[in-house]
Amino acid sequence: MTERALLGIDVGTSGTKVLLVSESGKVLARHTEEYEMYQPKNGWAEQDPADWWDATAKGIKAVIAETGMAPASVGLSGQMHGLVMLDSSGDVLRRSIIWCDQRTEAEVEDMERILGRQRIIEITANPPMTGFTAAKILWVKKNEPEIYEKCAHILLPKDYIRYRLTGEFATEVSDASGMQLMDVAGRQWSGEVLAKLGIEASMLASMYESEELTGKVTKEAAGATGLAEGTPVAGGAGDNPAAAIGTGVVSEGRAFTTVGSSAVIYAVSDEVRIDMQGRVHSLCASVPGKWTVMSCTQGAGLSLQWLRNNVCNAERQEAERLGVSAYDLMGKLAEGVPPGSDKLLFLPYLMGERSPHPDPDCRGVFFGLSARHGKANLIRSVIEGVSFSQLECLNVFREMGVSVGDMIMTGGGAASPLWRQLLADLYECPVSTLEANEGAALGAAILGGVAAGIYSSCAEGCEAHITRGAAVAPDAGMRLAYEPYYQLYRKLYHSLRDDFKTLAKIEA
Predict the structure, then answer these.
(1) What is the Cα–Cα distance from 334 to 422, expressed in whole angstroms?
(2) Catalytic-labelled residue, pool 175, 239, 359, 425
């Protein structure tokens, strides 16, 4: 019997990745199309949904042309928390306000006043957040009432792609639980939250589990993409819940760290576990009947990318000449610097922060900078600062009773031997990678396979696709060497918190 091909689509922040895999686990083709992020003001972040769709259509055409195979199913993944607003004709009303946008501090205060912080955590499993979708909706309602009045449908980024593929206004529990509009324990929209915030339930999409069928490719979408009309489309998942499927993290006790634009630690739990201090997030898992605990450092790989673009031009030029990644050359420079970067610390708050400090006003800091420091110190301090943030988040998980002794590392940062070893040392547990690091796009493809009946469960799909690479063992001596730097790193946010607020209030 001819093997069937499964398509996974991941609508990321820097680009959309389209992945075609066989049902037995072979990667057949992959394609990524990049696009812009717009920042009209400091702390704002927007993208054009038309760019996502164009990138998706190009990517699908590319993998079909490369293989000559028609996908048997489609699974969707994408950046979480983004706000897409459509009118009654299905046309986009404004650019999407995406996950890392920090403009909604006043709306978060409104939510706390209307519902109460503790009640919001009880229902949505998270404190009110500037990055989550609910506050973005309230911002548009307050600041762009003419747009809100025209709004008939509210979607998340990947769900906009679903709409373009199927004509259906649908979402699923893992991504929707990051909107701050759900009863997360009950896996459904919260009537209480919607009523008190004055958000019409009719604007929200129909809710599914991640592995359920949500629609089929329309004739129009087939013409635009090359997919066969009638191809089934799964619920899919937010990027991190999908990455959990794509890394085999589908049961309690297992976790992954992904270092991409943001950095996330994601662990699965058989029950809802909530941090009432709001330092990390609890969401519905992409596996039915399970939940997750998740942290998010907003400026992780983004911090290293910023450094590459603004400081490491020589490495970029040399990398282009050699045909390698500039990050590889930057990593080699950082390896020559001792732990602690010669007493230089970096706070990775370029886009504000979510975990473990939900604070839209905090900003990036190099602390201890002196004339003896050079480019290599800056690079290593950024890598260490992002890693210290991950340890701070993992320690919150452990406080909550979430046991993590099995860690997988994914994302662009996983390509760095320095970063893998550093996390193993700080976490004090082995860190492994995957032989094929396809992440969220693979998880989406597996979910599509379940929806189409190709696999009986996510676990069966994971068994077919996921093979681990070698694990990096922790070095206890290095953990001790990092300890004084880590403790100072933890202290610096609290020392600077009021100063961040003062800076935010200064008129530019």
Answers:
(1) 12
(2) 239
